[in-house]
Amino acid sequence: MAGDGRVLDTVGPQDHPFRWASVTKLLTALATLVAVEEGTVGLDEPAGPTGSTVRHLLAHASGLAPEGPAVLAPPGARRIYSNSGYEALADTVAIGADMGFEAYLADAVLAPLGLDGTRLAGSPAAGAVGPVRDLLRLGAELLAPTLIAPATLAGATHVAFPGLDGVLPGFGRQTPNDWGLGPELRDAKSPHWTGHRSSPRTFGHFGRAGGFLWVDPDAGLACGALSDLEFGPWAAEAWPALADAVLAEHRPR
């Protein structure tokens, strides 16, 4: 996907619905940022554990455990990747909007972007189901936003709570484990699921169901894939090689 919305290349079925798994968090984060711009919620309003805010939840810095209600650290102390945090985030948006989060996501993100094949079929942390064509439309939105101001996206793709260490699932401990307000940030992480050619400003997310979406603003490219093969060592080998091949073929010279 190019910055002007052109799909440069595809492989495989574009309309088959796949599980997005944790790539869902990009949808939930985008819906939250829409809610922030609308005044429905505020980034610094309390949400989640005591002392935590919407900003903490978006950036996996609330201290919540990966699953369940346990609090493992004070807010802002560690980067703990948390599905529970995204469920608390969606609850906060739903309360502010006075409607269920699934309906808010549909109204605020899915319908305006034309993601008519995608639905939230479970947790706002990992429950989206939809086709590759919708994933690529989301990539186009994250290259050139229409639902939120460019400044809002720029803020969301810079490090929130700099200097926090933590574990990047599937790739081990990162020092620091930089994260934005929703997207995971490549920066100088190693190992990483994007490629050696990927710029440090690359951001995105991957999921346990074997799919991913990355956006490289320096290259003006987004790349996404969905799969019915669970994440494993194959992905850690194949995804960086694919990113490097895509960037070698399409990156402006």
Structural description of this entry:
The chain is α+β, with helices and mostly antiparallel strands and 253 residues long. The chain has one domain: Beta-lactamase. 34% of the residues lie in helices and 11% in strands. It has seven helices and nine strands; from the N terminus they run βααααββααββββββα. It has helices spanning 24-38, 54-58, 83-97, 101-113, 132-143, 150-156, 233-250; strands at residues 18-19, 119-120, 128-130, 166-168, 172-174, 184-185, 203-206, 212-216, 221-225. Strands 6-7-8-9 form a four-stranded antiparallel beta sheet, sandwiched between helices. A hairpin with a 4-residue loop joins β8 and β9. It starts with 17 loop residues before the first strand and ends with a helix. The mean pLDDT is 96.
Strand order of the largest sheet: 6-7-8-9
CATH class: Alpha Beta
Oligomer: single chain
CATH topology: Beta-lactamase
CATH architecture annotation: 3-Layer(aba) Sandwich
β-strand percent reads: 5-15%
User: Count of helices?
Assistant: 7
Q: Level of helix content?
A: 25-40%
Please report the distance between the alpha carbons of the first and last residues: 17 Å
Extended strand count? 9
What count of domains describes the coordinates?
1
Give me the secondary-structure category.
alpha+beta
The CATH homologous superfamily corresponds to DD-peptidase/beta-lactamase superfamily
Q: State mean pLDDT (0 to 100 scale).
A: 96
**Large-scale geometry:** globular
Helix-strand string: EHHHHEEHHEEEEEEH
What is the rounded Rg? 17 Å
Short description:
The protein is an alpha+beta fold and 253 residues long. Helix content is 34%, strand content 11%.
